Amino acid sequence: MRFALWFLGLFGVAVALAMFASGNDSTVTFFWPPHRVDLSLNFFGVLLVLLFVLLYLAWRGLAVLFAMPGQARLWRLRHQERVMNAALLDALSHLMAGRYLRARKAAELVIAREAALTRAGEAWSEASRLRVLAHLLAAESAHALQDRSARELHFSQALAQSARTDAASTRDGVQLRAVRWSLEDRDADQALQWLSELPSGVARRTLALRLRLKVARLAGRNDLALETARLLIKHRAFSGLAATSLVRALALECILASNDAEQLLAMWSRLEASEQALPEVAVTAAGRLLRLDGGVAQALDWLLPVWQRMIDPDRGLSSDQKVFLIRVMENSFSVSGQAIDSTWLARIEAAQLADPGDAALQYLAGVACLHLQLWGKAQQLIGQALPRLQDAGLLTRAWQVLAELAQRQGHDSQAADAWKNAAQVTLHRRV
Q1: Model-level pTM?
Q2: Is the sign of the CA dihedral 124, 128, 131, 136 positive or negative?
């Protein structure tokens, strides 16, 4: 369609020129004394057109001639850019392939080429970012080669270049790499220092939080690690099961790191309700509080949600969790000068009567009777639970309790047999 329109337009122009030129008898006269030149108007128009074309071609020729130095400079600049881009790609590919020496040489080639362009007075907008990336790749390669001096040299130059306004977008990456290198060097203090220098927005990113979690665990900062883990969970950095496992492990580390009852109570108050409800966390905290001569009532309060979960048929506890709970409750009964709380005694009796086939609950009821000096009932309950106990620790403890009861009653032979059975269970467990 466009070609047809052009054809019609040219046809119209040709018709107009033919009509104008065929009947045009005008002339143009030039006087140059003593000469006179007469030209037809048609010929004069053709000369004007030819003169315009000649001047236009001459002007374009001169423009191209004077632009040749700039074109040559631009070509050289683009050629150097292509060479640097190719070297940068080589550095990245070699680094990912584990050829660290080649990656380092390729990155240093980029740096050398860019420096040569700068000395030649060539300036382009991406030069600063290119320098930062090249130095960072060279530093990463040197780190993999365990060449710390070269790594620090390139890193310091990358950090200095990233402070420029036109390379500010690369500074976050440089600082995060410094954190990771310090972490791999097992230098927790330096890693924490780099983390503290991160902008607040960068420090909340998932990558920065993951690094902070690792650094906190390396430095033994369990409180910081737990706080960081909570932020990562809010960012959905872990699956539900992995998040629960991580929080449980960190909370247990905080509990076991407590050196006195006051520190443990303060740490417990900083835990979230969902963390306090984890069976392993609550039972471990209660056991730790008892070992630190804390309050028995407080320890039992921490155990109450776990106990309620154990007797709930819809939730329940695993066998290991149940045994752990029973052992801690037994320890709470053994605290010197403390009597068993009547409320807890009623709870134990109700749970044992509701599930008489549960050997662990029957054993716990027998231990409670033992500490209430109900020797006969304690011996009966533990003796009935003994054949059905699956946990080696509870089985050993049951034989020991029976041995103590037999000694109290003066049955030395029965006590000796019970002690022998307890020793055999312990020996078998160790083997």
Answers
A1: 0.73
A2: negative
